[in-house]
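Memo to structure team: turn this sequence into structure tokens by end of day. - J.P.
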Amino acid sequence: MSTILVPSDFSKNATDALCYAISLCKQMNSELIVFHCSHISAYALSTATSETQMTHLLKEDEEHKMEKLKEQVSLAYQQQLNSKVPDSTRCMVSYNPMLVEKTLEIAKNNNVDLIVMGTHGATGITKFFFGSNTSIMIAKSDIPVMAIPENYQYNPLQQIVFASDLENLSSELAQIVPFAQSAESEIKVLFMDYGIDTEHTKINRAEAVIENTPYKKIKLEVQKATIETSLVGQVKKYIGLNKPDCLVMFARERSLWDRLFFKGSKTEDISTAMSIPLISFKKK
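Reply from structure team:
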């Protein structure tokens, strides 16, 4: 895990995500990019009487936003680590009305391994960017996206829970393990068992996959499930009892598992329902 990106709109919500990412970068020895996608209203741009004047307005806005971004990052480092901003942290500002698309472009061009964003608690343009756009980012991004709940305080990633239907465990662990290795975290593969597989074929196969995975900090946890309670509710209960540091899921085409889990919601929307950070990987 070499590079983490945090989109920022200067809100408290963005600062919370930034503070989390700063500590995560320290734990994983990663570089950090903090990106602000500058947006000027159509009204402001309409005051420009020439292309030269419009270019000047955009440049002036980017310079102002860069200073503001550097100040936010500096204060976040003081708050989180009581230190100055290291050379491994970069600030970037670019004008584009397509916020999600530009952020993904920046992430891909800079070989970003993880995008960290905040959720909840926003109004106005902040709500637009850190509400719906967190879900859109999860839905569109091929890069893993980590959604940080409002007011969540950083805990070192010691235990990661991966809620899985065990259907593609080998390929999915191949994506999760590098992240867990960077943090030296334990992976708990959580399988909610509805008792359909009476021969335990799926569980036995999963145990074999885990046994043959070189990373040895992986355990399978089987929990009895009931159709009387939503699966997401049962997972939330498990999280409340076991206090993991992060939940991992995969964004995918809607399957029976997804319909059971979300009861009409999507993977990208469930990020706002969890009390701990959720990392969404794109199903390959």
